[in-house]
Amino acid sequence: MRLCDLAIGLAAAATLHLATGCEGLRHLKQGLDDEGATLRVELQPATGATVWVDGLEVGGPSPVVREGLAAGAHRLEVRAPGYHPFSTPLELHARQRLTLAIALRPLPRAVEPPAR
What we know:
Layout: H1 3-12, H2 21-33, E1 37-44, E2 50-53, E3 56-59, E4 64-69, E5 72-79, E6 86-92, E7 97-103
Parallel strand pairs: 1-7
Antiparallel strand pairs: 1-4, 2-3, 2-5, 5-6
């Protein structure tokens, strides 16, 4: 076990999975030092989607709440089977509470030719 994995487990077990590694720990520590921002993502459809922040999976289904984010630039992504992926940059500030409502767009359905 690497030292950063142990630190994540001790300092942030409720907010990060061990798989996030050292990069996830740096984001969490920075967020806690800054009195980190909180991001709440409300999705339509509410089930089946996965939310990612800065390339790290943070949860699903809706609503997804991620606390302790560092102030600064982030990338939010939402993916769900049968829907177009959604991605947007975010600029967060210390102690900011941001709620985003995102309606995913369904992928076009294949049209079957008429029966002969």
